[in-house]
Amino acid sequence: MEIPLPKVNRKLLTPTFLCLWTMMFLIEFVKGALLVSILPVYMGDVLGLSALAIGLSFSTQYIGDNLFRAPAGWLISRIGFRLAMTLGISIMLIAVLLIAFTHQIGYIVLGCALLGAGTSPLWPCVMLGVSSVTEKNQNFATAMGVIQISSLGGTGLGPVLINFLVGISYALVFSVLLGCIGAVLLISLALPGVVKEAEEEEAPRRGKVNTSRPFDKLKHLQGRLVRTIGEVRRNIHVSRLLYPALFLQSFAVGLLTPVITLFVRTELGLSPEQFSLMLIVGGGFTVLGLIPVGRLVDQWGTTSFLNAGFALAAVSIGLFAYAKGMPGLLVWGLVILIGASYACILPSWNTMVSTLLPKKEKGAVWGFFLAIQGTGMVIGPVVSGRLWDFFGPHAPFLASAGAMSLLFLIHLRLSHKNVRRDGQEALPSAAGRDRLE
Description:
Elements: H1 15-46, H2 51-101, H3 105-119, H4 122-134, H5 140-166, H6 170-188, H7 196-208, H8 214-235, H9 242-254, H10 260-267, H11 272-300, H12 303-320, H13 328-354, H14 362-391, H15 395-416
Helix pairs in contact: 1-2, 1-4, 1-5, 1-6, 2-3, 2-4, 2-6, 2-14, 4-5, 4-14, 5-11, 5-13, 9-14, 9-15, 11-13, 12-13, 12-15
């Protein structure tokens, strides 16, 4: 079989896809700069707060994000991409203004919560947009590889560039971040309006309901929400193991997010410039592998890539916990392995989840799955801070490796269910899809 070359299908490059790609990059750039470079150093070095306090602040951002993801997915199908993202980015702008111009811890925590709430429509928008663009050509994994390049590129470049700008002026740093948010706000106005399918489905109902009074509007909205929940419950048929797997996939990352900067600076003794180089190397190997892996996943399915990615991540993250005192070459080798493991996981995981969506209410279901997955990013930073304070700097990394190991075992069980009792695959391998029964 011929191995597909890592190039992007031009049919993916629609105006909506390009807008979502650019917005993803800029939003993740801002979040990466704030959460990786600015807040940990400011709260740890300037305010003198514990790792637990930093973890709690991080969690408020993830709480805001996850609390509104499912409602955001539902609303996108009703009010469209444009209005949902414009409202979200406006809230994000207020959040960064609070963080930039206030100095009390309470306002910083509030800003983090609003930051999460403002960005909550992003991933449901992206998932719905990618599903629509790839429905005909069955190349969801390839598209997700392109999207993940944007996400990782923003997350990685944000801290890298900000590490250089912080030495000049915090005013310059926040000016750059606010400029990025302004650009996203303008791009959001170019997104499509109300989704056609949802608009057509709801039009007859709107004609029959009197919504002239506020009470009638509220009652009508409540009825639509109840119908949506009922539709989702009737159409989702997945293994119960999927839900802890969704949680663990982000929990493993959430354990590392608030402590990686402190670990690299205090335990490994790296300068901000060296840390930036480490992010470039690890992220670079992930980015370089995303499109080739995505194309292979579209051809061969997700099982092998997820098994390899989870196993490699568990081993490399576990060894990185003891990077202090290791030869430098070995440390850089572990960084490369971690990057390669995520190149296998990222496009494969979202492709697997996408096959479980019912035909109706995809926005609500995507929001529901993403909310469960994001819960790991809420709990992970809190647990990480406790582990660091009580058991030492290596503990969060060992816990993350343990979560990846458990995820590997769960996925082995899930992938076993992808084969029917008669020994035939649930879907043709040429379609590049796995299905949980």
